[in-house]
Amino acid sequence: MMTRRSAVTGLLLGGATAALASGVAGNRMLRRLLLGAPAFASSLKPLAIPAPLAGEMRDGVRRYTLHLQRGVSSFFDGVETPTLGINGAYLGPTLKMRSGERVRIEVTNRIGEPTTLHWHGLHLPARADGGPHQIIEDGATWSAEFEVRQRASTFWYHSHMAPRTGPQVYRGLAGLIEVADEASDRLDLPAEYGVDDVPLVLQDRAFDRDGALLYGTAMPDVMMGMRGDVMLVNGTVGPYFEARTEKLRLRILNGSNARFYRLGFADGRPFHQIATDGGLLERPHETSAITLAPAERAQIVVDLSDGRPVDLLARSVPVGMMGGGMMRGHMMGDDRTFDVLAIRPGAGRRRSAPLPDRLVDLEPPDEARAIRTRRFVLEMAMGPMVMMGASDPFTINGKTMDMGRIDEVARVGTSEIWQIENDSMMAHPFHIHDVQFRILDRNGAPPPPGEMGLKDTVVVAPGERVRLLLDFADYSDPDRPYMYHCHILEHEDAGMMGQFVVTA
Ligand code: C2O
Ligand code: CU
Ligand code: CU
C-alpha cells in the first residue's frame, strides 16, 4: 500500500521527468504501482541472532577479519533475494569489544563496487573512522586500529560510501558492535548473548515481484527516505523468540534507512529502558513506549514472569508536517504497525535478578564548560526547481556536502555546544561522528528521561531547536574530517552532511 502511494505521489510531483530519470528503479516502482506489492509466503521463523565475533588477541591487539561480500538470502519461503553481507549473505557478525582494549579490524571488500565501513558511535581517530574518505576499492583491504574508549553500549558499523550509503546499507552492509566494561560487568543485568541479552536490528524493506530488494530513487523516495512494507529483524521476516529467562534484555537498533518507530508491547505492558545510544542510563526508566529514529539505539528489559506470550510492535511514526494536499496525504498517511518479535516464554524459565535501582554514574551535562556555540540549520527546499532536480533540496547551514570542504574546525581538549535547528517540514535524526554527546535542552526544556544519557544521534523535529554538549576529548587530525549528517540515508546521500576536523 505504502509504496503504491509513494509511486502515485512521485508521478504527480516529479511528472515524467522523475519517472524517466529514475531509470530501472523507476520502472520497477511503476510496475509495482500497476501490479501492487508482491505477497510472498513466510512461515514464522526463529529470530536469527547475528554470530558473535570476539576476534583474536595477538600482541596485545584484538583482531577481527571482515569480508564484505555479495550473497543470496531467503527472507521468504522459496524466494531468493540478492543481498550484501559481512562474513555472510546479509548483515554481519556482532563485534564484541571491551573498553580499554586495542582493536584492529581488517576489512576486505568483495561487493563489486567501492565502499567504506564506519564504526557508528565510536570515539576514535579520524583515519580509523571509516567515513566517506576511507574508501575501500573493490578487491582491496583496509584496516582500522584504535583503542576502545567507550562506555558499555551497543554501537554499529555500516557502509558510509558517499553518495551510495543508502543503497549499500539497504542491501545489507551493516552489523552490530557490543562494548563491555567493568561498570556494566558488575551490574546484575541479563547478559547472555542471544539468550537473555538479545540484539534486534530493525529494517523495513520493499521487495519486487522477482524477490529482489526494491530501492527507489524517485523524488518521494529521496524526500521521505526509502521505506518498505516488510519488517526484517536481524534479517528475519516474522520472527519469534523462545525466552528461557524471566527477564529479557533487548538491544534495539533502528537500522532502517528512513523510518521512525514507536516501540511497545501489544498488551501495553510497561518495561524499563536502561540505555541510550552510547551507554547505560543512570537508572532504569519505566515506560510503555520508546521512539527510535534511524541509527538510534536503546536497551530495554522486559519482564516475562507472567508466562504469557507477547508481541513487540513497531508503529511507524509520521515525520512530516506538510500543509495540505497530496504531500500531506503521503507524509502523514503512512501509518502502519509492524510485528517485530513474537516472544514466547518457555517452560522452566530461569529466574532473573531484580533490576538494579542504579546503573551507572553520569555527570550532569554542565554547559559552563563549553567554549562556544555553533549553529546548524537544517533545511529542505521544496520548490519546483528541486522537483525537477535543478537545485539541491537538502542543506545544513545552506550548504550541501562537499568532500573537499571542511565546514567546522574544533580544538581537541575543548567542549562546545552545538545547536541544531530544524527549519524544514520533516524530522531529521542528526548524527555526529567521534563523540558521544549529551542533550542540554529541546526548545529550552530539559530532555525526557529516555534521552538523559550518552547519545550520538538526536531527533530534531520541525521547528525545534536542540542544544547538545560535545567534548572533543582526544585525537586530532587537521586533514581528515569527521562527518555530521542527517541519518535518513537518502538525505545524507543527497547532501545533508557536513565535515569537521579536530585540531591540536
Ligand atoms: Cu551511522 Cu555517519 O553514520
Ligand atoms: Cu557515525
Ligand atoms: Cu533528514
Question: Could you give the topology of this structure?
Answer:
Blueprint: H1 2-21, H2 23-35, E1 45-46, E2 52-53, E3 56-58, E4 61-76, E5 79-86, E6 94-98, E7 102-110, E8 118-120, E9 141-147, E10 153-158, H3 165-171, E11 174-180, H4 182-186, E12 197-205, H5 219-224, E13 230-233, E14 236-237, E15 239-245, E16 247-254, E17 261-265, E18 271-276, E19 279-287, E20 290-292, E21 297-303, E22 310-316, H6 325-332, E23 337-350, E24 370-380, H7 384-387, E25 394-396, E26 408-411, E27 415-422, E28 428-432, E29 438-442, E30 457-460, E31 465-471, E32 477-486, H8 489-493, E33 497-503
Parallel strand pairs: 1-15, 2-6, 4-7, 6-11, 12-16, 15-23, 24-27, 26-33
Antiparallel strand pairs: 3-4, 4-5, 7-9, 8-10, 10-11, 12-13, 13-14, 16-21, 17-20, 17-22, 18-19, 18-21, 22-23, 24-25, 27-31, 28-30, 28-32, 29-31, 32-33
Helix pairs in contact: 1-2
The structure holds CU-O-CU linkage and copper (II) ion (CU) (2 copies).
How large is the count of helical segments?
8
Structural class: mainly beta
Which kinds of small molecule does this entry bind, naming each only once? CU-O-CU linkage, copper (II) ion
Distance between the termini: 53 Å
Order the strands across the largest sheet as they lie in space: 14-13-12-16-21-18-19
How much of the polypeptide forms β-strand, as a percent range? 35-45%
* Total strands: 33
Major sheet, described briefly?
7 strands, mixed
Given as residue ranges, the uncertain stretches (5+ residues, pLDDT < 50) are: 1-24, 322-333
The residue-averaged pLDDT reads 90
Radius of gyration using CA atoms only: 22 Å
Q: How helix-rich are the residues, as a percent range?
A: 10-25%
Overall morphology:
globular
